[in-house]
């Protein structure tokens, strides 16, 4: 899940693993699971998302959420998911670069 962390007087978006409850520290260590449950996958349908660490957390949450007799929910790497989100929101690479510079300039406030 996406949360906002309050630290040093500011708010910072963080992604929390839906399995273990710990923060996913970088895009390479997380995945996003598209979850329909028992709902049919129909054109235009919206599904829920689960954010988890790769490996044990991924496997653990699948064992809890996957309805018996159904195929495993499709998943994607967290960094690709976030890139797709930017793409479909029409946030350009130039705009992302500009925003990254703005974030870097405020680095002293960003929580590690
Ligand atoms: Zn986890």
Please, could you describe this protein's structure?
The structure is a single chain. With 112 residues, this protein is an alpha+beta fold. It has 3 helices and 5 strands. The protein has a domain at 2-77. It is 30% helix and 24% strand. It has a 3-stranded antiparallel sheet with strand order 4-3-5. It has a two-stranded antiparallel ribbon with strand order 1-2. The structure holds zinc ion (ZN). Zinc ion binds at residues 17, 19-20, 22, 52-53, 57.
Fraction in beta strands: 15-25%
Q: Return residue spans where pLDDT drops below 50 for at least 5 consecutive residues.
A: none
Query: What is the number of strand segments?
Result: 5
Q: N-to-C terminal Cα separation, in Å?
A: 19 Å
Task: Sketch the topology as an H/E string, one letter per element.
Answer: EEEEHEHH
Helix coverage percent? 25-40%
Globally, the shape reads globular
So how many helices?
3
Mean pLDDT: 91
**Radius of gyration computed on alpha carbons:** 16 Å
Biggest sheet: strands, sense, closure? 3 strands, antiparallel
Numbering strands along the chain, what is their spatial order in the largest sheet?
4-3-5
What structural class results from the helix and strand content?
alpha+beta
Q: Catalogue the ligands.
A: zinc ion
